[in-house]
């Protein structure tokens, strides 16, 4: 069975940026929640993106072949 990595799981990273946006614009209550949720968002990114998936279950436009492809996609070069 061939394995690939799924680009769709970059959503937690977008959620992390949203939390930083709330921390920047929000009141003291939002800053506290954003600080608590940011590590959880990073952990979910790491666990979801770096787990190989079955090629048949990932559409071709979302496939990433290796860890180097993942890092290229994170930096916007893919």
Describe the structure.
This protein is mostly helical. It contains three helices and three strands, in the order βααββα. It has a three-stranded antiparallel β-sheet with strand order 2-1-3. α1 (11-25) runs antiparallel to α2. The longest helix has 22 residues, at 28-49. The model has no long low-confidence stretch (mean pLDDT 75).
Overall body shape: elongated
- Total strand count, please? 3
Number of helices: 3
SSE class: mainly alpha
* SSE run: EHHEEH
- Overall radius of gyration: 15 Å
The main pleated sheet reads as: 3 strands, antiparallel
Report the average pLDDT across residues. Answer: 75
Helix % is 55-70%
Distance between the termini: 25 Å
**What share of the residues does DSSP label as strand, in percent?**
5-15%
Low-confidence stretches: none
Strand sequence of the main sheet, in spatial order? 2-1-3
Write a concise keyword list for the protein shown above:
78 residues; mainly alpha; 3-stranded antiparallel beta sheet; 3 helices; 3 strands
